[in-house]
Structure formats: C-alpha cells, structure tokens
C-alpha cells in the first residue's frame, strides 16, 4: 500500500510540476532555441535514442548545444564541440527544458537515473537501473557536480541504490540536494550527498571522496 501511494505521489507531482514549469519556461525555451539556431546550427533540437524504463528505447529531445561532429557520448570528451553559446545553454540547463515534455508523457521523471544511449551501456551490468523511469537528477548527478566527472561503474551503483530506495520522500531529498548544489556549488562537498541522500548511498558517495 505504501509503495502504491509513493508511486501515485511521485507521478502526480511529476505531471503537475512539469506542466507548470513548461508554461513558465516557454519564453526561456524560445530564447534557447533561437540561440541554438543562430550560433550552433539548424535544426536547434537534438533527438537521440535513450534507454528508458524496462530497457525500452525512446526518442530523447534536447535543445542542441554541441557543434556538428561525431557524437562522443561523454561530457569530458565533448568539450571541443562546445562553443560559448553551447556552454551557456548547458551551464544554465536551458537545453534540458524539452525533458519536461518527456516527464509529462511518462517517459521520464524528475528524479531517476539519467537516460543514456544504449552504446554507453554495452557490456555493463545495469542491474535494476531500468526498473524505474530515467530522470533529470539522481544521487549520481549530485556526486558528478562535486567531481566534474564520474566513474561509470560508480554511477551505475548509485543508480541501482536509488532504484531500490525510491520513495516520494527520498525523491524530495534528492531534489533538495540537487537544488542546493547549484547555489553552493563552489562549496559543495560529498557531505551534501551523505546528509540529504540517506542510507546506502552514503557509502557509495564516500568512495568518490576517497578516490580524490
């Protein structure tokens, strides 16, 4: 019964919040699309296939932030394809506004493992990562904000921990930790992850800290 209530609260919050944010962000989305079309290239949207809940692929839409070229897949390998406009779009997360449409459609959630291309998951044991909807943020993203990069095996481990611990309250703590991280990014350390993302995620976050 508790699980059903959590799922209802998560989905209801996703729909209501995404719909409201989509309306409020419309002027910003139009501005971002114009910037992308002028300084990166037309069309100003980038559509790729990502893996969603149940391992099912879906078409993922973002505002284009990378200059044309061969897709590299990892953030740290794409820096040479980011011009000033692309860096602004990514840094401000304006390129992610279309993800609100995916949340309303039920393809994504606000909290969940980031949707990844199938080729980045080849040969990896994803465990229960795909038992939940992919999301805008998760414990792995909080750790990524601290290090600037994240080992893919640790990312998968953190994603699996989330899949096992998911609840409405846990989601709210992750959202709070993520929002806080953007305001105190320069001072952020992994105590944020440990404090606001309770339970098993603590031990995994400490692995990142010990690797520094």
What does this structure look like?
With 212 residues, the chain is mainly alpha-helical. The chain has helices at residues 2-24, 26-39, 84-92, 99-105, 139-147, 152-165, 168-183, 191-196, 201-211; strands at 45-51, 57-63, 109-111, 135-137. Helix 1 runs antiparallel to helix 4, helix 5 (139-147) runs parallel beside helix 7 and helix 6 packs antiparallel against helix 9 (201-211). Mean pLDDT is 83; it is low at 186-190 and 195-205.
Class derived from helix and strand content:
mainly alpha
Helix content class: 40-55%
- Which strand order do you get reading across the main beta sheet? 1-2
* Topology order in helix (H) and strand (E) letters: HHEEHHEEHHHHH
Largest sheet: 2 strands, antiparallel
| Uncertain parts | 186-190, 195-205
Put simply, the count of helices is: 9
Number of strands: 4
The averaged pLDDT comes out at 83
Strand content: 5-15%
Q: What is the approximate shape? A: globular
The rounded Rg comes to: 17 Å
Distance N terminus to C terminus?
A: 42 Å
């Amino acid at each position: 019964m508790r699980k059903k209530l959590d799922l209802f609260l998560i989905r209801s919050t996703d729909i209501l919040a995404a719909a409201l944010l989509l309306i409020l962000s419309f002027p910003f989305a139009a501005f971002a699309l114009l910037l992308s079309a002028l300084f990166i290239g037309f069309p100003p949207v980038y559509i790729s296939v990502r893996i969603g809940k149940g391992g099912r692929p879906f078409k993922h839409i973002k505002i284009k932030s990378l200059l044309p070229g061969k897709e590299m897949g990892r953030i740290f390998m794409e820096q040479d394809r980011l011009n000033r406009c692309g860096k602004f779009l990514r840094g401000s997360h304006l390129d992610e506004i279309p993800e609100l449409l995916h949340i309303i459609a039920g393809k994504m959630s606000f909290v969940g493992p980031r949707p990844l291309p199938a080729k980045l998951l080849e040969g990896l044991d994803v465990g229960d990562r795909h038992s939940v909807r992919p999301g805008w943020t998760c414990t792995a993203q909080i750790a990524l904000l601290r290090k600037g990069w994240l080992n893919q095996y640790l990312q998968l481990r953190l994603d699996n921990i989330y899949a096992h611990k998911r609840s409405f309250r846990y989601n709210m703590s992750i959202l709070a930790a993520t929002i806080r991280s953007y305001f105190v990014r320069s001072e952020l350390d992994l105590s944020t992850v440990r404090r606001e993302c309770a339970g098993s995620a603590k031990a995994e976050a400490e692995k990142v800290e010990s690797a520094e």
